[in-house]
Design brief:
The protein has one domain. Helix content is 17%, strand content 30%. The chain contains five helices and 15 strands. Strands 11-12-15-1-14-13 form a six-stranded mixed sheet. Strands 2-5-6-8-7 form a five-stranded mixed sheet. The N and C termini lie far apart (39 Å). Bound molecules: zinc ion (ZN).
């Protein structure tokens, strides 16, 4: 079935969890500035916190899985319903995306569950600590397979306690965005329906 992930990773069957990496952009309105969605509570580090729901025209929401221009991820209304029906995923794990008429046209993925730290497994080093508010973000270190495709590691402990949909404990880049991580069973469901969707696999790291 020409599944993208199976072509990029020889050992994809061994992956235990997957970070979302959808590539179809859900563009918002031309006259909405990205900064409008966020507030900046700390002047020193300028960490951004999303205060408003994302806005997008219905015509831009045709893909079941998409990436927002704020680099968060989203799903169609239908897919969100299916995920809530089949998995331990709740309404709180999404935030509505509306058009300018106020109709819900898509959903942003906002996982409520935070995973255990994975700094040791992935050699994630703190990039910047704000002396004012204590906010911290990490440099995105990753591993690459022989095809140059990136992957991460997860500990058994983090795997055991993760949910169907999660954010990493660590945030990355000056935008403080975590990785959005789904369980193996959610991944199986998604790739079966959408074989072209892309993810970054997490493999188990045996600790001594
Ligand atoms: Zn700060």
């Amino acid at each position: 079935m020409n599944q993208l992930m199976a072509r990029l990773y020889d050992n994809i069957d061994e992956a235990k969890a997957f970070a979302l990496s959808f590539t179809n952009f859900v563009y918002d309105y031309d006259d909405v500035i990205i900064d409008d969605y966020f507030i900046i509570p700390c002047k020193h580090c300028k960490r951004m916190i999303q205060a408003k729901d994302y806005l997008a025209p219905k015509a831009n929401c045709k893909n079941p899985c998409g990436i927002l221009t704020t680099f968060h991820f989203g799903v169609s209304i239908e897919l969100r319903d299916q995920l809530m029906e089949r998995f331990e995923i709740s309404e709180q794990d999404f935030r509505p995306i509306r058009n300018k008429r106020g109709e819900i046209v898509y959903y942003q993925i906002t996982p409520q569950h935070t995973m255990l730290p994975l700094q040791k497994e992935n050699d994630w080093k703190a990039a910047k600590l704000c002396p004012q508010c204590g906010s911290l973000y990490y440099k995105d270190h990753h591993y690459e397979n022989s095809k140059g495709e990136k992957y991460y590691y997860i500990s058994q402990q983090a795997l055991d306690e993760m949910h169907d949909i999660n954010v990493t404990y660590e945030c990355f880049s000056r935008f403080y965005i975590p990785r959005f991580v789904i369980s193996r069973r959610v991944y199986n469901f998604l790739v079966e329906r959408y074989p072209r969707t892309h993810y970054f696999p997490f493999y188990l790291k045996e600790t001594t």
